[in-house]
Amino acid sequence: MIAYPARRIAIAIVTLVLASIVVFTMLEIVPGDPARIMLGMNASAEQVAQLRHQMGLDAPLLLRYLHWTGGLLKLDFGQSYTYSVPVIDLVAERMAVSLPLALIALALSTIIAIPVGLYSASRRGGTGDTIAMGTAQLGVAVPNFWFALLLIYLFAVWLHWVPAGGFPGWDAGIGLALKSLALPALALALPQAAILARVARSALIEVLSEDYIRTARAKGIPRRAVLWRHALRNAMIPVLTIMGLQFAFLLAGTIIIENVFYLPGLGRLVFQAINQRDLIVVKSVVMLLVAIVIVVNLLVDLSYALVDPRLRGRP
């Protein structure tokens, strides 16, 4: 029981270390001098050298890496070159938008996808299955920003139910804040729900062909109970995998949606920091997102043992 989670945790730690090396190295070799960009092209070489020294950019590469990773371990992400504030403050401010948005979108995609996957698998080859999977295929093919534009036109411009963009902040009231996140969350959830529904259907079709499902039906257990209590649980491993990947994507890959809806989230922060050559912000935020992806995948791996008891005794 202990060997399985211990092995997964060790793999996660090694992956995290390797990811930090890759992120640091890739951003170090990106062309462009942050000090030169901040001071402008008319700045003298002495001014640029002085600013590079203040920013610690003239220190040896290994020392800068160790200083950066040491700070990350203490949740000290450094000081933003552009905003002149601690990066952790910027992250906390933007995470207050991106994290609820990702959680709402994941909840919506799950609520939509699981029943659709169950319905399609239980009616494999039928008209309902064809319509559901055809719709899901359309959802996979259409980009989320296109869904966003359609939702803005329908619910904001035509019906005036929700604002077309912007975020008033949580201080304006939870109801108003959630209302501002409704359309972005739905635009993110629809393509993810389409993917998750197809995965759930495939996993359920495989499970429904097992002997124990036929045995349960032969015993007279109602069809709904067989689907929800027996088939769905045993089909959850691939579904959980996709859900973990989707949450990481929803948190880290919302740059387009956040720009469409003018949301001050992590995606826009990274986009602005890249344009402003604020490398400390880019490195810290990207590493934070990588860490979240690794931790989420670790939790998904550990959840396999809860769903499938056979994994608990594996090394």
UniProtKB/TrEMBL annotation:
Keywords: Cell membrane, Membrane, Transmembrane, Transmembrane helix, Transport. Residues 95-300 form the ABC transmembrane type-1 domain. GO terms for cellular component: plasma membrane. It holds the Pfam family BPD_transp_1_N. GO terms for molecular function: dipeptide transmembrane transporter activity. It is a multi-pass membrane protein. Its main location: membrane. The chain crosses the membrane at residues 9-30, 99-119, 140-161, 237-257, 285-307. It is found in: Cell membrane. The keyword Transmembrane applies. Belongs to the binding-protein-dependent transport system permease family. This is Peptide ABC transporter. It comes from Manganibacter manganicus.
